[in-house]
């Protein structure tokens, strides 16, 4: 399925209620605190802004936020929280669509770069981000580390979440660097709801090369928004790339 088909009306309506820990006030606050710091008082562009999980509270902190989002139903949900004057949004593909202005910060959080299913599209996304940056501006990417160490020979899937009423499973296609993420949600009865999304995973070093192709330099890599050290055991990373200049 195409990205716009996956993030349809039904998904958009349920999105905010189905974020789990990523929607918690603590996680959002840590993310916003770091982005405020990295923006250094300038305007920010969020690629794949979605329903505004981060964009809305970031704008409330005084950062001028603009968004790009492919899914119109997701933008409609955002509009219940912030109008177009507060957060302008351009509907389109984050790898190619340009918006007016130059930004001190462009950011892409919650694994969303993996929604681009071809390496060439991910490279184009980095170039698009760089094209929106002022000299000295930053591009921030939050992405999970592929969990391949948990795949024994002959096994292609790992469970990434187990919690009351929910379970998550990633099925890997190692030869193509693709995975299908399965999110199961259980009610009080015997039935379950399933949401699936397809992704292309990339290692941090691959992202660094994409950044180089876009004229960006790695400034920081942390295991999380609190600047935790990135180690062999990190399950995700926050990578900060900078456009050379003043």
**From the alpha-carbon coordinates, what is the Rg to the nearest angstrom?**
18 Å
Let me know the number of strands.
11
The low-confidence parts are none
Mean pLDDT: 91
The span between the termini is 43 Å
Share of residues in helices: 25-40%
Number of helices: 7
Which structural category do the helix and sheet elements fall into?
Answer: alpha/beta
- Biggest sheet strand order reads 3-2-1-4-5-11-10
Strand content: 25-35%
SSE string: HHHEHEHEEHEEEEEHEE
Principal-axis shape: globular
* Biggest sheet record: 7 strands, mixed
What would your notes on this structure say?
- The chain has 246 residues and is an alpha/beta fold.
- It is 26% helix and 31% strand.
Distinctive features:
single chain; about 250 residues; alpha/beta; seven-stranded mixed beta sheet; four-stranded antiparallel beta sheet; 7 helices; 11 strands
Give me the secondary-structure topology.
Blueprint: H1 3-6, H2 9-15, H3 25-39, E1 44-47, H4 55-60, E2 65-69, H5 72-78, E3 89-91, E4 103-108, H6 119-132, E5 133-144, E6 157-163, E7 166-173, E8 178-186, E9 192-200, H7 204-213, E10 217-222, E11 236-242
Parallel strand pairs: 1-2, 1-4, 2-3, 4-5
Antiparallel strand pairs: 5-11, 6-7, 7-8, 8-9, 10-11
Helix pairs in contact: 2-5, 6-7
In short:
With 246 residues, the chain is an alpha/beta fold. It is built from seven helices and eleven strands.
